[in-house]
Write a structure and sequence with these properties.
This protein is 36% helix and 22% strand. By secondary structure, it is α+β, with helices and mostly antiparallel strands. It folds into three domains: 170 residues, Reverse transcriptase/Diguanylate cyclase domain (Alpha-Beta Plaits), CATH 3.30.70; 57 residues, DNA polymerase, domain 1 (Orthogonal Bundle), CATH 1.10.150.20; 101 residues, DNA polymerase, Y-family, little finger domain (Dna Ligase, domain 1). The chain binds thymidine-5'-triphosphate (TTP) and magnesium ion.
């Protein structure tokens, strides 16, 4: 038995979510490679794909054209049936709330639950997770995977461990061993760039990370150092936050070819700003900080932020600030491969309500380093 202060956290994540909904709704799609996302003849990317398609190497955020090359006979669903996905999302959420009010949705198909104390008075988080998975299957005819542990970090990684339709339980005594086997990419905050850097330092797995002293990790990774130190030891005290308050609204685009032309840079940023204006409108939000992100051809990313005197939400206003920030980078001389804008310091009605629409395919790579 563990101390009563040990928390019981479940992370639930639906399997191949959009693709699974399509296969459920269209029996003729079942058992086949299926891609949901942009058209293969466009610059669009894959939102997700069925497990049959994953065997061909297709994955989220990959250009649809590349997915087509890998598997020309795959079924491409390019019109999003968003209301179907939202309906399932509401159904699973209703199931979560039967157990606890401490539910933190991360996206349409994914949530953390703190079941340390739960409405059923059930002391076993593992049994609760199994019940939830069974109820989801019964109600939606779709499968979900679950991770059960004593903190968010491990529960989330665990839910991925026996996907699809699996459950993984990691108890406190098992945690350090579990983490030692993880590829470094699995750690939250490790995107492509950090992964590359870590690998050059010989850090490939959790075990490698565990060898570093706290001061060494601070030297190497600055303010992320203490986070990596704790994570490697299975320490994560973040609480499950019931209402997921959006902290930023942003969008980024990886360009088809690297560019230096300032007119072209302006045009693309304006397109992004227009898109963000629409989202801000939906949220009825205003933002006090405007951030530009650029990634150069050598994969070096730079962000520049500006906190504005008068909060903004219109594309024109956003562009005024962004264009100023562009001049503080090497854009124009050094070839660019990615452009992004993000607004934070949000205020106003509506924005605090989680909006899954933000995780649609045109939102390209969800770079964890941003
Ligand atoms: P995920 O849970 O990341 O993926 P998934 O449910 O499709 O597959 P898995 O079995 O590995 O969990 O994302 C949930 C949904 O969010 C996914 O079905 C489609 C959407 N999505 C995008 O639109 N763009 C993306 O880049 C990602 C990662 C997901
Ligand atoms: Mg999922």
């Amino acid at each position: 038995m563990y101390s009563k202060y040990v928390r019981k956290i479940i992370h639930i994540d639906m399997d191949a979510f959009f693709a699974a909904v399509e296969q459920r709704n269209h029996p003729e799609y079942r058992g086949k490679p299926l891609v949901v996302g942009g058209r293969p003849d466009s610059r669009g990317v894959v939102s997700t794909c069925s497990y049959e398609a994953r065997k061909f190497g297709i994955h989220s955020a990959m250009p649809s054209a590349q997915a087509y090359k890998l598997c020309p006979h795959a079924i491409f669903v390019c019109d999003h049936n968003f209301s179907d996905y939202k309906e399932v999302s509401d159904q699973i959420r209703e199931i979560f709330f039967q157990y606890t009010d401490l539910v933190e949705p991360l996206s349409l198909d994914e949530a953390y639950l703190d079941v340390t104390e739960n409405k059923m008075g059930n002391p076993s988080a593992t049994l609760i997770a199994q019940e939830i998975r069974a109820k989801i299957k019964e109600k939606t005819r779709l499968t979900a995977s679950a991770g059960v542990s004593y903190n968010k970090f491990i529960a989330k990684i665990a839910s991925d461990y026996h996907k699809p339709d699996g459950i993984t339980v990691v108890t406190p005594p098992e945690a350090v061993d579990f983490i030692s086997k993880l590829p470094i990419r699995k750690f939250w905050g490790v995107g492509k760039v950090t992964e590359k850097r870590m690998i050059t330092m010989g850090i490939k797995t959790g075990a490698d990370l565990q060898k570093f002293e706290l001061y060494e990790l601070i030297e190497l990774f600055g303010k992320s150092g203490p986070y990596f130190y704790d994570a490697a030891r299975g320490i994560d005290n973040r609480t499950v936050e019931p209402s997921h308050i959006r902290k930023s609204i942003g969008r980024e685009t990886t360009l088809k070819v690297d560019i230096t032309d300032m007119d072209e840079i302006y045009r693309i940023l304006k397109e992004i700003a227009d898109d963000i204006e629409n989202t801000m409108e939906r949220y009825k939000a205003l933002a006090s900080t405007v951030t530009l992100k650029v990634k150069f051809h050598d994969f070096i990313s730079v962000t520049r932020s500006h906190t504005v005197e008068y909060p903004v939400n219109k594309s024109g206003e956003i562009m005024n600030h962004i264009w100023n920030l562009v001049s503080k980078t090497e854009a124009g001389s050094k070839p660019l491969r990615l452009l992004g804008i993000s607004l934070s310091g949000l205020s106003g009605k509506g924005f605090s309500e989680y909006d899954p629409q933000l995780k649609l395919p045109f939102e390209e790579s969800l770079d964890k380093d941003f």
